[in-house]
Design goal:
This protein is 42% helix and 13% strand. The protein contains 19 helices and 16 strands. The strands form five sheets. A five-stranded parallel sheet has the order 2-1-3-4-5, with helices on both faces. Strand 1, helix 1 and strand 2 form a beta-alpha-beta unit. Helix 10 crosses helix 12 and helix 13 crosses helix 15. The longest helix has 19 residues. The radius of gyration is 24 Å and the shape is globular.
Length: 464
């Protein structure tokens, strides 16, 4: 049984992670700080240390020095990608962004431990993970239907190659899990997988984040910084929502794919990088090339091999299987091993269209597990939103509402569906507001704004 030490100062996170790993069959100990870990345990006796980056006293990366023979996995908030890059440079074997997906954490742990075991036996003849239990996409993603089996088949075929992969699918279908499976099945599995959500980084910072910058390259650049592409050198780079990259970043990324080199912002020197590129999008990149929103040459460079993750509404036979997995996970977290679905709840899950896909299903199960009385999840506790349900939009729902920003009075009832209100608001204001301003006024992220534009067929405002 592999021994794992968790170093995390937040009791809730530490307890939940400990329970998750114990349930997976690991011998787990924990501590609240680096000093507590060193004083209370012999660090050399552990097969893996999982530590938060920010801790009271010394940072989690200090454990890399204090336990040089033990691999260290660093947890960090998603907003601290730069810190994650620094952690990898200091010697962390992997990093995971919080809040983390349970399957992602278990896959990362299994991958690290399998490689550690193979290093001890000096068996380097083939890719480390290819012989482990995590060497199959079905260990990371769930899918019994024919469409998902085809996805698994494509992942197994393309993962061992150096081919660039474009993962296409709606939001919430599991594109990042597919990218992780591609990485873990590749010869690069021992190297880092760096994941970047292009829609989550402000346009003004995305080039600096991806390519790095030199000291003094722009106001506030008080020191040089390594970019995420360089941090992935030797490993894989996953660019989620690549359709949201601004034109300048698209041109620079094309050079990485063509020449295998990067140039930091503010630098005149280029350097070679060895990175396997995996991109993902929920948008139609081919259509975007026709409107000029996405470079055609970059599209063809990325679209060497395309893997399409089907939406959950096309995977009816997988819905209950996924639900049971999520219920088991929630039951373990809540200490309720008897948690189960009522027959009516099963029917509700099967008949719902799941516009948010697997992510929406997981959230629905988590909510129902908390709200249900006893062991049975019913349709009431699932509380699924019915499409087309009218909602009264009160005045002042959107901060800063004024006569210019309100939908024009059509002479009809004030009762608009949320989608109607969204459509009215965007069409009324997109000529005088940027995408960021629209998203802020609506109280949603830029990514959600783009997703709803696509779903409702609202053309995106062209920049001057």
């Amino acid at each position: 049984m592999s021994r794992i030490l968790i170093v995390e100062d937040e009791e809730i996170i530490r307890s939940a992670l400990k329970k998750l790993l114990q349930h997976a069959g690991y011998d787990v100990s924990d501590a609240g700080s680096v000093d507590d870990a060193e004083q209370g345990h012999d660090l050399s006796q552990f097969d893996l240390i999982i530590s938060d980056l920010r801790l009271p006293g010394a940072p989690g990366t200090e454990l890399i020095n204090r336990a040089p023979d033990t691999p260290v996995l660093i947890m960090t908030s998603y907003a601290s990608l730069r810190s994650a890059v620094d952690s990898m440079k200091l010697g962390a074997v992997e990093y995971i962004a919080k809040p983390f997906d349970h399957d992602e954490m278990l896959a990362a742990v299994a991958n690290i431990l399998s490689q550690k075991g193979e290093t001890k036996t000096d068996s380097r003849a083939e890719a480390p993970v290819a012989r482990s239990a995590e060497g199959d996409p079905s260990a990371i993603m769930y899918g019994e239907c024919d469409a998902m089996q085809q996805v698994f088949h494509l992942i197994r075929k393309v993962a061992p190659t150096e081919t660039t992969v474009l993962v296409n699918g709606e939001s919430g279908t599991g594109k990042e899990l597919a990218a992780r499976a591609l990485h873990l099945l590749s010869p690069r599995a021992a190297r880092p997988l760096i994941s970047v959500n292009c829609a989550a980084i402000p346009e003004s910072l995305i080039e600096s984040e991806l390519f790095g910058h030199e000291k003094g390259a722009f106001t506030g650049a008080v020191s040089g910084r390594t970019g995420l592409i360089e941090a992935a050198d030797g490993g894989s780079l996953f660019l989620d929502e690549i359709g949201e990259l601004p034109p300048e970043a698209q041109a620079r990324l094309l050079r990485v794919l063509q020449e295998g080199e990067i140039r930091k912002v503010g630098s005149t020197q280029s350097r070679k990088v060895d990175v396997r590129m995996i991109a993902a999008t929920h948008r139609n990149l081919k259509a975007m090339t026709r409107t000029g929103e996405f470079r055609e040459d970059l599209y063809y460079r990325l679209n060497v091999m395309q893997i399409r993750i089907p939406p959950l509404r096309d995977r009816k036979s997988d819905i209950l299987g996924l639900a049971r997995r999520f219920i088991k996970r929630q039951g373990d977290k809540l200490g309720n091993a008897n948690l189960h679905l009522s027959p009516e709840a099963m029917q509700a899950l099967r008949s719902y269209r799941w516009p948010g896909n697997v992510r929406e299903l997981e959230n629905a199960i988590e909510r129902a597990s908390i709200l249900c009385e006893g062991d049975v999840i019913t349709p009431v506790t699932l509380d699924l939103e019915i499409e087309g349900e009218d909602v009264n939009i009160p005045h002042g729902l959107v901060e800063g509402d004024n006569e210019q920003t309100k939908p024009q009075d059509t002479g009809e009832s004030n009762d608009l569906s949320l989608e109607d209100y969204f459509q009215h608001f965007v069409l009324e204001n997109q000529d005088r507001m940027s995408e960021t301003e629209l998203a802020q006024k609506l109280g949603i992220s830029r990514k959600s704004l783009w997703e709803r534009r696509q779903r409702l067929g609202i053309p995106r405002k062209k920049s001057g």
